Model the fold of this input.
Amino acid sequence: MSLVAASDLARAAYCPRQLYYARQSDDRGPPDEVEARRDLAFRYPELRGANDAALESRPIAVEPAEYRGNLDALAADDLWDRLVDPTERDALLTGKDCRGVAHKLLAGDDGADDPTPPTPVFVSGGVPPPEGVWEPQSVRAVALAKALAWERGREVPRGLVEYPAVGVVRPVRLTTRKKARYRELLWTVETLDGPPPRLDDDTKCEPCEYREACGVRTRSLKSLLGL
Ligand code: SF4
Done:
Protein backbone atom coordinates (compact mmCIF):
# COMPACT_ATOMS: atom_id res chain seq x y z
CA MET A 1 0.00 0.00 0.00
CA SER A 2 1.48 3.39 -1.00
CA LEU A 3 1.93 6.14 1.53
CA VAL A 4 -0.97 8.54 2.03
CA ALA A 5 -0.29 12.28 1.58
CA ALA A 6 -0.94 14.36 4.70
CA SER A 7 -2.71 16.90 2.44
CA ASP A 8 -5.16 14.17 1.35
CA LEU A 9 -5.92 13.36 4.99
CA ALA A 10 -6.69 17.03 5.55
CA ARG A 11 -9.02 17.11 2.52
CA ALA A 12 -10.76 13.97 3.71
CA ALA A 13 -11.26 15.56 7.13
CA TYR A 14 -12.95 18.49 5.43
CA CYS A 15 -15.01 16.34 3.04
CA PRO A 16 -14.12 12.94 1.53
CA ARG A 17 -16.09 13.83 -1.59
CA GLN A 18 -13.96 16.96 -2.07
CA LEU A 19 -10.86 14.75 -2.00
CA TYR A 20 -12.42 12.59 -4.70
CA TYR A 21 -12.91 15.65 -6.97
CA ALA A 22 -9.46 17.02 -6.20
CA ARG A 23 -7.93 13.72 -7.32
CA GLN A 24 -9.99 13.75 -10.51
CA SER A 25 -8.87 17.28 -11.41
CA ASP A 26 -5.29 16.67 -10.32
CA ASP A 27 -5.08 20.35 -9.36
CA ARG A 28 -3.96 20.28 -5.79
CA GLY A 29 -1.23 22.93 -5.45
CA PRO A 30 -1.84 25.85 -3.05
CA PRO A 31 -3.05 29.12 -4.61
CA ASP A 32 -0.65 32.10 -4.84
CA GLU A 33 -2.40 33.92 -1.94
CA VAL A 34 -1.63 31.01 0.36
CA GLU A 35 2.04 31.03 -0.66
CA ALA A 36 2.21 34.80 -0.06
CA ARG A 37 0.80 34.39 3.43
CA ARG A 38 3.11 31.47 4.20
CA ASP A 39 6.04 33.67 3.27
CA LEU A 40 5.12 35.97 6.20
CA ALA A 41 6.05 33.14 8.59
CA PHE A 42 9.70 33.64 7.63
CA ARG A 43 9.75 37.42 8.17
CA TYR A 44 8.53 37.91 11.74
CA PRO A 45 11.45 40.02 13.08
CA GLU A 46 11.08 42.40 10.10
CA LEU A 47 7.28 42.49 10.37
CA ARG A 48 7.35 43.06 14.12
CA GLY A 49 9.14 46.36 13.57
CA ALA A 50 7.23 47.39 10.44
CA ASN A 51 5.02 50.48 10.36
CA ASP A 52 1.33 50.47 9.47
CA ALA A 53 1.87 51.23 5.78
CA ALA A 54 4.41 48.43 5.40
CA LEU A 55 2.11 45.94 7.13
CA GLU A 56 -0.91 47.04 5.09
CA SER A 57 1.03 46.18 1.93
CA ARG A 58 1.33 42.58 3.19
CA PRO A 59 -1.41 39.92 3.06
CA ILE A 60 -2.21 40.12 6.79
CA ALA A 61 -5.75 39.45 8.03
CA VAL A 62 -5.90 41.82 11.04
CA GLU A 63 -5.15 45.50 11.63
CA PRO A 64 -1.43 46.39 11.79
CA ALA A 65 -1.51 47.23 15.52
CA GLU A 66 -3.11 43.88 16.34
CA TYR A 67 -0.60 42.12 14.11
CA ARG A 68 2.38 43.69 15.89
CA GLY A 69 0.76 42.86 19.24
CA ASN A 70 0.35 39.22 18.23
CA LEU A 71 4.00 39.02 17.15
CA ASP A 72 5.08 40.65 20.44
CA ALA A 73 3.14 37.97 22.33
CA LEU A 74 4.77 35.29 20.18
CA ALA A 75 8.21 36.77 20.81
CA ALA A 76 7.65 36.30 24.55
CA ASP A 77 7.07 32.56 24.01
CA ASP A 78 9.84 29.96 24.34
CA LEU A 79 9.14 28.95 20.75
CA TRP A 80 10.14 32.28 19.23
CA ASP A 81 13.83 31.61 18.52
CA ARG A 82 13.06 28.29 16.89
CA LEU A 83 10.12 29.68 14.91
CA VAL A 84 12.15 32.50 13.37
CA ASP A 85 15.14 30.26 12.73
CA PRO A 86 13.82 26.74 12.10
CA THR A 87 16.25 23.86 11.58
CA GLU A 88 14.71 23.10 8.22
CA ARG A 89 12.20 24.60 5.80
CA ASP A 90 9.84 22.49 3.70
CA ALA A 91 11.05 19.24 5.22
CA LEU A 92 9.52 16.18 3.56
CA LEU A 93 8.66 13.74 6.36
CA THR A 94 8.00 10.09 5.63
CA GLY A 95 6.27 7.92 8.18
CA LYS A 96 4.95 4.38 8.24
CA ASP A 97 1.59 5.25 6.64
CA CYS A 98 1.81 8.85 5.63
CA ARG A 99 4.14 11.51 4.21
CA GLY A 100 3.93 15.27 4.08
CA VAL A 101 5.81 18.55 4.16
CA ALA A 102 6.49 20.39 7.39
CA HIS A 103 6.94 24.03 6.39
CA LYS A 104 9.20 24.40 9.42
CA LEU A 105 11.00 21.80 11.46
CA LEU A 106 11.93 23.00 14.94
CA ALA A 107 14.99 21.41 16.53
CA GLY A 108 14.71 19.37 19.71
CA ASP A 109 17.19 19.34 22.58
CA ASP A 110 17.75 15.97 24.26
CA GLY A 111 20.71 17.23 26.26
CA ALA A 112 18.72 19.76 28.29
CA ASP A 113 17.47 19.19 31.88
CA ASP A 114 14.02 19.43 30.41
CA PRO A 115 14.38 17.70 26.98
CA THR A 116 12.54 19.32 24.08
CA PRO A 117 11.29 17.05 21.30
CA PRO A 118 11.64 18.12 17.65
CA THR A 119 8.43 19.68 16.38
CA PRO A 120 6.92 19.89 12.89
CA VAL A 121 5.02 23.03 11.89
CA PHE A 122 2.27 23.30 9.33
CA VAL A 123 2.00 26.91 8.13
CA SER A 124 -1.57 27.78 7.20
CA GLY A 125 -2.53 30.37 4.62
CA GLY A 126 -5.77 31.06 6.47
CA VAL A 127 -6.95 32.42 9.78
CA PRO A 128 -7.51 30.36 12.95
CA PRO A 129 -10.81 29.56 14.65
CA PRO A 130 -11.45 31.38 17.97
CA GLU A 131 -9.73 28.52 19.81
CA GLY A 132 -7.54 25.62 18.75
CA VAL A 133 -7.15 24.82 15.06
CA TRP A 134 -9.47 23.73 12.25
CA GLU A 135 -9.91 19.98 12.09
CA PRO A 136 -8.21 19.42 8.69
CA GLN A 137 -5.14 21.24 10.01
CA SER A 138 -5.22 19.30 13.25
CA VAL A 139 -5.18 16.04 11.27
CA ARG A 140 -2.31 17.31 9.17
CA ALA A 141 -0.30 18.30 12.25
CA VAL A 142 -0.88 14.84 13.75
CA ALA A 143 0.24 13.21 10.48
CA LEU A 144 3.45 15.28 10.42
CA ALA A 145 4.22 14.56 14.07
CA LYS A 146 3.69 10.83 13.53
CA ALA A 147 5.89 10.85 10.42
CA LEU A 148 8.65 12.70 12.27
CA ALA A 149 8.38 10.27 15.19
CA TRP A 150 8.74 7.35 12.76
CA GLU A 151 11.80 8.91 11.06
CA ARG A 152 13.54 9.74 14.32
CA GLY A 153 12.47 6.67 16.27
CA ARG A 154 11.29 8.80 19.18
CA GLU A 155 8.10 10.27 20.57
CA VAL A 156 6.90 13.55 19.07
CA PRO A 157 3.99 14.53 21.32
CA ARG A 158 2.75 17.53 19.37
CA GLY A 159 2.79 19.47 16.13
CA LEU A 160 2.14 23.16 15.61
CA VAL A 161 -0.12 25.05 13.25
CA GLU A 162 1.07 28.53 12.45
CA TYR A 163 -1.19 31.30 11.14
CA PRO A 164 1.16 33.99 9.83
CA ALA A 165 -1.71 36.07 8.41
CA VAL A 166 -2.57 36.93 12.02
CA GLY A 167 0.71 36.09 13.74
CA VAL A 168 -0.40 33.28 16.05
CA VAL A 169 0.74 29.69 16.58
CA ARG A 170 -1.43 26.94 18.05
CA PRO A 171 -0.32 23.54 19.37
CA VAL A 172 -1.91 20.21 18.41
CA ARG A 173 -1.31 17.47 20.96
CA LEU A 174 -1.46 13.85 19.86
CA THR A 175 -4.27 12.77 22.15
CA THR A 176 -5.92 9.35 21.91
CA ARG A 177 -8.92 10.93 20.22
CA LYS A 178 -6.81 12.74 17.62
CA LYS A 179 -4.80 9.61 16.84
CA ALA A 180 -8.03 7.63 16.39
CA ARG A 181 -9.34 10.26 13.97
CA TYR A 182 -6.04 10.09 12.06
CA ARG A 183 -6.38 6.31 11.67
CA GLU A 184 -10.03 6.64 10.62
CA LEU A 185 -9.07 9.13 7.89
CA LEU A 186 -6.19 6.96 6.72
CA TRP A 187 -8.72 4.24 6.09
CA THR A 188 -11.06 6.69 4.32
CA VAL A 189 -8.29 7.82 1.97
CA GLU A 190 -6.90 4.36 1.32
CA THR A 191 -10.31 2.95 0.39
CA LEU A 192 -11.60 5.90 -1.65
CA ASP A 193 -12.57 4.53 -5.06
CA GLY A 194 -15.74 6.41 -5.98
CA PRO A 195 -17.52 9.64 -5.00
CA PRO A 196 -18.51 9.50 -1.30
CA PRO A 197 -21.91 10.93 -0.25
CA ARG A 198 -22.43 14.69 -0.32
CA LEU A 199 -22.28 16.62 2.91
CA ASP A 200 -25.24 18.53 4.24
CA ASP A 201 -23.16 21.40 5.58
CA ASP A 202 -23.47 24.82 3.96
CA THR A 203 -20.52 26.21 5.89
CA LYS A 204 -18.28 23.69 4.10
CA CYS A 205 -20.05 23.54 0.74
CA GLU A 206 -20.42 27.32 0.13
CA PRO A 207 -16.64 27.88 -0.16
CA CYS A 208 -15.91 24.53 -1.85
CA GLU A 209 -14.26 24.88 -5.27
CA TYR A 210 -15.92 21.65 -6.47
CA ARG A 211 -19.47 22.74 -5.58
CA GLU A 212 -20.67 22.77 -9.20
CA ALA A 213 -19.18 19.41 -10.10
CA CYS A 214 -20.57 18.00 -6.88
CA GLY A 215 -24.08 19.29 -7.59
CA VAL A 216 -24.75 20.15 -3.97
CA ARG A 217 -27.45 22.74 -3.34
CA THR A 218 -26.36 25.19 -0.69
CA ARG A 219 -28.81 27.34 1.25
CA SER A 220 -28.01 30.43 -0.86
CA LEU A 221 -28.63 28.50 -4.09
CA LYS A 222 -31.86 27.02 -2.74
CA SER A 223 -33.15 30.48 -1.81
CA LEU A 224 -32.12 31.78 -5.27
CA LEU A 225 -34.12 28.95 -6.83
CA GLY A 226 -37.01 29.49 -4.40
CA LEU A 227 -36.65 25.94 -3.03
S1 SF4 B 1 -19.75 20.87 -2.28
FE1 SF4 B 1 -19.81 20.06 -0.18
S2 SF4 B 1 -20.26 17.87 -0.40
FE2 SF4 B 1 -19.59 18.63 -2.40
S3 SF4 B 1 -17.41 18.20 -2.46
FE3 SF4 B 1 -17.65 20.28 -1.73
S4 SF4 B 1 -17.67 20.17 0.51
FE4 SF4 B 1 -18.03 18.11 -0.29
Q: What stands out?
A: The mean pLDDT is 93. The CA atoms of residues 122 and 161 lie 5 Å apart.
